């Protein structure tokens, strides 16, 4: 039996359980107060019934389906993300604070990740989804958009704005603990996020939809080169890479996002200061690419010899011409190159 069919059967069973409880055997005149109490009691009972039946087998907007396992995220980032100390220092604490059950948050959590390709932006975003939801990136509460695939034509920006506004509202109405990832923001037309500002700002608290528990993450290559240049300057002046701070980059990222071409250019979201954290993903050096290669071999259950690691690194790494210290594609091409070596060993 397919997953879809089994899920439909589950819906039917739940429906008939509800019908059996809520349809009275006889209709009599009941006082309004009694009706209100009865409806409230029935609503509470149905909620409990659903949690003990349907939601034990299918994804629901509850703690079972949304465990928000930050220990899992911490382990994932500490073992498979390299060269990005500011992610552990700022992204993880921001999520923990936002997800606490007693959090007094009055708005959505909004973060913007910036960096050159292959530095880990998409990886971290996906790992957040894997930690938040029992079904990970396959969760129906996880929503991911791509600039070139979903919002490619500037002439259709008004259509895109309406789509974002509609889909975000509907998704959060279904589950306040939704996660939205907008990838390739630098490839999106200017103004595409204008309607989103009122939903993620403090003013979004009003009405019948609770936006305060949602998370929005924007991924962009915007300012990637500037991040690399600034990092190189700091390192040449004696600052160790691991000692660089968010404050070294945050103002530059805010200005770059606002002024450089892309979905965040001149956006009301920056004007209204609704983006809580701008996170720089630093350009990777050779030592970080080596770590990526070793981690990828481990995923194949292979303990590689130094020569095998060096061969992959040498075939994958091209250094930036300006500083001659950063890998231009980071770890982006490592997976497929290691796969070739791994498959050769198994044949």
How would you describe this structure in keywords?
347 residues, 5-stranded parallel β-sheet, single chain, alpha/beta
Mean pLDDT: 86
Reported for the largest beta sheet, the result is: 5 strands, parallel
Give the helix tally: 14
Radius of gyration: 24 Å
Report how far apart the termini are.
35 Å
- Extract low-pLDDT stretches: 15-28
Count of β-strands: 5
User: Can you list the strand order of the major beta sheet?
Assistant: 2-3-4-1-5
| Alpha-beta classification | alpha/beta
Structure description:
This protein has 347 residues and is of the alpha/beta class. It is built from 14 helices and five strands. The protein has a five-stranded parallel beta sheet, with helices on both faces. Helix 12 crosses helix 13 (306-316). The longest helix is centred in the first third of the chain and has 21 residues, at 32-52. 31% of the residues are buried. Mean pLDDT is 86; it is low at 15-28.
Briefly summarize what is shown.
With 347 residues, this protein is α/β, with parallel strands linked by helices. The protein is 49% helix and 8% strand. The longest helix is centred in the first third of the chain and has 21 residues.
């Amino acid at each position: 039996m397919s997953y879809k069919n089994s899920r439909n059967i589950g819906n039917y069973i739940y429906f008939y359980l509800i019908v059996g409880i809520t349809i009275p055997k006889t209709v009599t005149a009941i006082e309004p107060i009694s009706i209100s109490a009865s409806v409230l009691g029935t609503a509470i009972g149905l909620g409990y019934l659903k949690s003990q039946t349907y939601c034990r087998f299918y994804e629901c907007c509850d703690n079972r389906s949304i465990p928000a396992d930050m220990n899992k995220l911490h382990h994932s980032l500490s073992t498979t993300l390299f060269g990005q100390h500011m992610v552990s220092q700022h992204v993880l604490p921001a999520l923990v604070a936002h997800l606490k059950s007693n959090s007094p948050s009055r708005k959505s959590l909004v973060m913007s990740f910036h960096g050159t390709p292959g530095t880990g932006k998409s990886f971290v975003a996906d790992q957040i989804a894997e930690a938040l939801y029992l079904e990970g990136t396959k969760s129906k509460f996880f929503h991911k958009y791509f600039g070139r695939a979903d919002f490619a034509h500037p002439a259709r920006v008004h259509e895109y704005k309406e789509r974002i506004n509609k889909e975000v509202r509907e998704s959060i109405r279904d589950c306040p603990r939704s996660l939205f990832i907008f990838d390739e923001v630098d490839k999106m037309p200017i103004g595409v996020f204008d309607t989103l500002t009122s939903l993620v700002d403090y003013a979004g608290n009003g009405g019948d939809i609770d936006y305060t528990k949602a998370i929005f993450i924007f991924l962009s290559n915007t300012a990637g080169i500037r991040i690399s240049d600034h990092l190189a300057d700091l390192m040449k002046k004696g600052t160790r890479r691991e000692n660089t701070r968010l404050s070294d980059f945050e103002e530059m990222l805010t200005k770059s996002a606002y002024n450089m071409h892309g979905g965040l250019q001149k956006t009301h979201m920056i004007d209204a200061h609704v983006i809580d954290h701008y996170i720089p993903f630093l350009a990777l050096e050779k030592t970080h690419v080596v770590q990526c290669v070793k981690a990828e071999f481990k995923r194949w259950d292979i303990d590689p010899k130094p020569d095998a690691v060096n061969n992959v690194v040498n075939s994958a790494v091209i250094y930036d011409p300006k500083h001659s210290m950063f890998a231009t594609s980071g770890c982006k091409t490592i997976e497929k190159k290691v796969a070739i070596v791994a498959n050769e060993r198994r044949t």
